[in-house]
Amino acid sequence: MAVRTVGVEEEFLLVDPVSGRPRAVGGAVLQAAEDDSELTAELHREQLETGTRPCVGLDELGRELRGTRAVAAAAASAVGVDLVALATSPLAVEPTVSPSPRYRKMAQRFGLTVDEVMTCGCHVHVAIDSAEEGVAAADRIRPWLAPLLALSVNSPFWQGADSGYASFRSQLWTRWPSAGPYELFGSPAGYRGTVAAILGSDTVLDEGMIYFDARLSRHHPTLEIRVADVCLDPDDAVLIAALARALVETAVRGRRAGCAPDPVRTEVLRLASWRAGRSGLDGELLDPTTWRPAAAADVLNRLMAHVAPALEDAGELETVRGLLDAVLRRGTGATRQRQVLERTGDLSAVVAAATAAGRGTG
């Protein structure tokens, strides 16, 4: 059986090695990288984005993730900053918009939202054979996206304080008018009609601002799943990617078997996302099989049961179980950040620890 390829885009902060505060040097870092195609600019000059090649095996994906992080970290080091895998800055920052006409238009249209929403996500691209397949998968994976967010939470701090959320990035992200959970599309025509209605409203600038939690990629034959925080540990990004791919494969198999997608309303999905971002794995999540609160570990066990046939056929079941057990054992990025602050009382120490962890050395 052919296994779908999967690729990952990750967004990072560029921070001062001593203070831990973000620095507006994204353009200089890109120049230091000598136009490496793995690195691209982001909305703010304090950020950088990387992207892997499409991968089949999880070992291959892990090497790619570590490799792209290493390339980006080396380019950052060349201009005197560190690359850090945090979805929000623990320390206070006044972000600066990158100097592109599109980003400047975004700043003019969306005002304070652009100034404040300096967040870093993890976007997983899963190969699809057609738009029909992609929309069928997008419709069927909706219930399971909040648990992916809960696994990835890595942004408890914002502007120098504890936000009270495990993923404050997910709260900030909802400020975009086109972001978050979505209704059933039903068909490619339904998907295209929704996108056309959004663009026709003249609210967002372009199709690049269709920020659904999962969307058809404009540039690749993939379904792009955009719900996760950037992960502190590259192994956690591998886990998110493996589960995302298994969810897509399970959804496509369900479509072939004539299984209809869950008709759960977007309002309920938004509640599930809020709870996932609020407590991560440290509280209850909404169980997609009942839409009632349940222990996070129980919800993850149901997620594993849901995708187990796809993981087993890909030869990944034991690997993914091991990666999941590791997160449950050592905690999410948010939990680990808070542990560092409790131990040191210093948010700059949180950033330093995250820098090491993001390289796979801490």
From TrEMBL:
Family label: Belongs to the glutamate--cysteine ligase type 2 family. YbdK subfamily.
EC number: 6.3.2.2
Catalytic function, reaction form: L-cysteine + L-glutamate + ATP = gamma-L-glutamyl-L-cysteine + ADP + phosphate + H(+)
Organism: Pseudonocardia bannensis
Signal peptide as annotated in the record: none
MF GO annotations: ATP binding; glutamate-cysteine ligase activity
Record-linked Gene3D superfamilies: 3.30.590.20
Keywords: ATP-binding, Ligase, Nucleotide-binding
Stated name of the protein: Putative glutamate--cysteine ligase 2
Gene Ontology biological process terms in this record: modified amino acid biosynthetic process
Domain of life: Bacteria
One Pfam family linked to the record: GCS2
Role: ATP-dependent carboxylate-amine ligase which exhibits weak glutamate--cysteine ligase activity.
